[in-house]
Write a structure and sequence with these properties.
149 residues; alpha/beta; Nucleotidyltransferase, domain 5; 5 strands; 34% helix; 12% strand; cell membrane; transmembrane helix; Biopolymer transporter ExbD; transmembrane transporter activity; protein transport
């Protein structure tokens, strides 16, 4: 019995597993990649040469103390609710809701009391609200003043 002579064939490489791995990697990177789309508006602000205009009316000062009590122009209110603050604001402004209101809150005041004051100002009809802040104290200045005490 004679066996047929085998010829050497080129070995075949199966590419199917390689393509599967490449597709899996592609899917993995597509799913795990985060695309950030930054939404910024380019605004070209106008320039002005004039200084700040003087206000005819002084703004109403609403103080929120550490314990949540309210004062208008350094006059303390008897009740600390929204309705009394709204009425006191209208009385202090003489029903002129076009006046500016400056909200000055203690750093230790609760967030709720500040929100209550802002809500009462808005419900009274005032549209010009400013919130007073202060510049942070440098640690060098604070350390120097602490050493002097």
């Amino acid at each position: 019995m004679k066996f047929p002579r085998r010829t050497l064939e080129d070995p075949a490489i199966n590419l199917t597993p390689l393509i599967d791995v490449v597709f899996l990697l592609l899917i993995f990177f597509m799913v795990t990649t985060t695309f950030t789309r930054e939404t910024r508006l380019a605004v070209d602000l106008p320039e002005a040469e004039a200084g700040q205009a003087e206000q005819v009316n002084q703004p109403l000062e609403v103080l929120v103390s550490e314990n949540g009590s309210f004062s208008i122009n350094n006059e303390r209110l008897m009740d600390n609710d929204s309705a009394s603050l709204r009425l006191a604001l209208l009385n202090a402004a003489e029903q002129d809701t076009s006046r500016a209101v400056l909200l000055i809150a203690d750093a230790e005041a609760t967030h709720q009391s500040v929100v209550t004051a802002m809500d009462a100002i808005g419900q009274a009809g005032f549209s010009q609200l400013s919130i007073a802040t202060r510049q942070p104290v440098d640690s060098d200045t604070e350390a120097a003043s602490g050493d002097a005490l």
